[in-house]
Write a structure and sequence with these properties.
heterodimer; A: mainly alpha; two-stranded antiparallel ribbon; 4 helices; B: mainly alpha; rod-shaped
Chain lengths: 77, 29
């Protein structure tokens, strides 16, 4: 059940970042969140680089979910 | 170890990011 909650939230947040529904998140999509979240552009860039495991400049749903699951389960423990 | 420090910082920024998203979702109707 925890796993399902996590996947649901990850998908929801992915769509929050990928407003155009491209299926991936580019760095500029992440920077757009600067207006909505209390994070600096530098922080958002840091978040992007941390989640972009292969460093290709695009965040796939898999990369995003993997990063989110670490956060989610560390919060629940 | 600078690498460990960078890792810990990134984790904090990630936690901050996801927490902000969580509160954004619950904060809006």
């Amino acid at each position: 059940p925890g796993q399902l909650d996590m996947l649901k939230k990850a998908q929801e947040f992915f769509q929050t970042c990928d407003t155009e529904g491209k299926g991936f998140i580019a760095k500029k999509d992440m920077q757009r969140l600067h207006n909505e979240l209390p994070l600096s552009l530098e922080d958002l860039e840091d978040v992007f680089d941390t989640l972009d495991a292969d460093g290709n400049g695009f965040l796939t749903p898999e990369e995003f979910t993997s990063g989110f699951s670490h956060f989610f389960f560390s919060q629940n423990n | 170890d600078p690498n460990m420090k960078a890792g810990a910082t990134s984790e904090g920024v990630l936690a901050n990011f996801f927490n902000s998203l969580l509160s954004k979702k619950t904060g809006s109707p």
